[in-house]
Q: What sequence folds into this?
């Protein structure tokens, strides 16, 4: 009841999602390929990426590289791609970087993470270690059109290091 004695209207209920609305929601669909697989998860509600974990014990040799299995397959929404990015802590503390990180929306195979070790010591990865992050990004894929000339800009064809001079 309001202070003036009038009755207050009850709050409207939140409507249930229709089947059509539910189909239009965006989900990251993940399939575990082994019992060692760990579902991707975000470290906080504002994290851009999902942590990816190793499903195996692997040694990344000093100044070398290794393919780390996650034992996961994913299905991402159309008009997106998944990008595998480094974890800043591994890069800063152990000189570990990630390579070849594009996963197309139509790929359904196992997800592997290529780790580069820029340090002078081997880096041991154990099952369950967080090794990279998966970032889902929207993309546009315009049709390609060949033209005779491009429009002019102030920068023009100035390449590496040409701005700010």
A:
């Amino acid at each position: 009841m309001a202070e003036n004695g009038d009755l207050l209207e009850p709050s409207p209920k939140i409507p249930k999602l229709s089947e059509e609305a539910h189909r239009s929601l965006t989900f990251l669909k993940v399939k575990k390929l082994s019992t060692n697989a760990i579902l991707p998860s975000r470290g906080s509600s504002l994290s851009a990426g999902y942590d990816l974990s190793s499903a195996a014990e692997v040694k990344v040799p000093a100044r070398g590289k290794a393919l780390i299995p996650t034992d996961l397959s994913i299905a991402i929404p159309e008009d997106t791609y998944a990008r595998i990015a480094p974890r800043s802590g591994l890069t800063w503390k152990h000189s570990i970087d990630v390579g070849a990180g594009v996963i197309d929306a139509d790929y359904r195979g196992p997800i592997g993470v290529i780790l580069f070790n820029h340090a002078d010591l081997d880096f041991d990865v154990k099952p369950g270690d967080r090794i990279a992050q998966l970032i889902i990004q929207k993309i546009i894929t315009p049709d390609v059109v060949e033209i005779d000339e491009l429009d002019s800009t102030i920068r023009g064809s100035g390449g590496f290091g040409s701005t700010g001079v």
In short: The domain at 29-138 is CATH 2.70.40.10 (Deoxyuridine 5'-Triphosphate Nucleotidohydrolase; Chain A). The chain has a mean pLDDT of 89.
